[in-house]
Amino acid sequence: MLDRDLKRGSTEMLIMAMVEDRPRHGYEIGKLIEQRSHGVLQFHVASLYPLLYRLEKRGLIKGRWVEKAGERRRRFYTLTAAGRKILAEQRRTWKDFFAALDLVAGINPV
Amino acid sequence: MPDWKKEIRERLAGLRLAPTRETEIVEELAQYLEDCYEELLAGGMTKADAWRKTLEELNECDLLARELSKIERPVSGEPVVLGARRINLLWDLVRDMRFGIRMLLKSKGFTLIAVLSLALGIGANTALFSVVDAVLLKTLPVKEPERLVLFEWQAGRPFRTNGMSGTSNVPAPTGTRALSLFRYEVFEKMRQARVAAPESPLSDFFAFAPIRELTAVVDQQAEIIKGQAVSGGYYAGLGVQPSLGRGIIDQDDKPGAAPVVVLSHQFWQERFGGNPAVIGKPLKLNKQSFTIIGVTPPAFTGTLQVDYHPAVTIPLAFEPLLQGENSNLGTSDTPGVWWLNLMGRLKPGATYEQARDSLNGTFQAAALEVRPPPRKASEPAQLDPKDNPRLIVESGSRGMLDIRRSYSSTIYGLFIVVALVLLIA
């Protein structure tokens, strides 16, 4: 049985994947998703930040203000250990989902 | 540079976020918009177009506010301004409680010990207060209990008595002894003296004493019960009106009268099922037949020691009928013993001292009269006047005090322990 909150889960997974390897700030996360999806997936203030705050509240990512010389301070997000676990689970779920879609409708994501 | 913070703050005003949290969110979103704006400028867009395009990001601000409202907790009170006067007491109380709970949760071990100590202290205090109320504070459920006086006496050690029966714990100075018990002959003389003196400060004067073991037979079933013997003026003096039938009166407390008995409410309920038809029925006590004449009210359990609740009450004159040769009244062969408790009711305005002085002379003469003969030749036939017995009058509002006195130090000791537990908590 696949996750009922696939849609919401997918955007959460995208954000978590963006901060998996290194800390990133909100604008960078939004831009990176847009670039990597070749403009198909776009985030705005209203859609990105509530997601970031929700993930932070659930302890899946952690935000931290960083000040660099000559720059205004920014808030960088990193993936927590709990977030890493959830991200791995979501990746598996999506793989299963695409495999099922492929079997039924011949949709191969690759 | 456009003021993004102002734009964002205006759009989030309805969320009523905590000030520090709102500042953080506004700063972060403003940073995002600034990045966006600069990128558009870098891409060759005019400032006006870049401004308009960036503001489009906020077009969906309804969505942003709605989503944030699901995540962020709004503050429900006014922010605290240093030096400002607080007028919302209820809100302050809630904040203080929340702060208190947060602090307590920070150190769970300490909180657990404090809560347990408080629970123990409060629980023990409540239980102890019930005992204090019953033993030390509660007055008799009778008419104007504050007018009741209790008679005791004190004498030098050389004054001897020929035996006593009952509980007596009256504190006395060194070299003296004090008792709360009287002999029947002494009571009788005091009673006659009071009756003979119309100006007496006492409107009533009566005696009562426990009969510790009685065999009662109800429906051919025998049971050992506690009883008491009272003089004829007992119920009238206390102002106790039986809930059923009548109490013992002077005419019942005379030789030759018919033996009668008054039941306690509890005994009547337990052994007679609360049947009102018991009045006039016989009750066997120590194989002697007594006629039931009344039942006392539920709250009235007698005037004896706090732990002694007699099931039946008989007239004093019938004590020998029940006790036979062991009668405390004495027989032709054996003198009576000191066993009666004496109580009186002050006339309105009369004092303890007046009550004592009105009967002290009669008491002293009667007590010396029943004094046993010297045991040894060295013992003087005449007592030194300083050793003569003299009356003491105390409040009778709580009934007999002897057991109460002996419990009081223990109870106060426990009170101190409980108070210490509460203090530690």
In summary, what is this structure?
The complex is a heterodimer of chains A (110) and B (425). Chain A has helices at residues 6-18, 26-36, 45-57, 81-105; strands spanning 24-25, 61-66, 74-79. By secondary structure, chain A is of the alpha+beta class.
What does this structure look like?
Chain A is α+β, with helices and mostly antiparallel strands and 110 residues long. Helices cover 56% and strands 13% of the residues of chain A. Chain A has helices at residues 6-18, 26-36, 45-57, 81-105, and strands at residues 24-25, 61-66, 74-79. Chain A has a three-stranded antiparallel beta sheet with strand order 1-3-2. In chain A, a hairpin with a 7-residue loop joins β2 and β3 (74-79). Chain A starts with 5 loop residues before the first helix and ends in a 5-residue tail after the last helix. The mean pLDDT of chain A is 87. Chain B is an alpha+beta fold and 425 residues long. Helices cover 41% and strands 17% of the residues of chain B. Chain B contains twelve helices and eleven strands. Chain B has helices at 4-12, 19-42, 47-55, 61-71, 89-106, 108-137, 184-196, 234-238, 265-272, 319-323, 352-369, 402-424, and strands at residues 148-156, 176-179, 202-218, 221-230, 244-245, 260-263, 282-285, 288-295, 312-315, 341-346, 390-395. Chain B has a six-stranded mixed beta barrel with strand order 3-4-9-6-8-7. Chain B is elongated and about 135 Å long.
Number of helices of chain B: 12
H/E topology pattern of chain B: HHHHHHEEHEEHEEHEEEHEHEH
Ends apart, CA distance between termini of chain B: 60 Å
Number of strands of chain B: 11
Biggest chain-to-chain interface with counts = A-B, 18 and 22 residues
Helix content class of chain B: 40-55%
**Helix-strand topology string of chain A:** HEHHEEH
Assess the beta-strand content of chain B as a share of residues. Answer: 15-25%
Question: Which structural class should the secondary elements of chain A be placed in?
Answer: alpha+beta
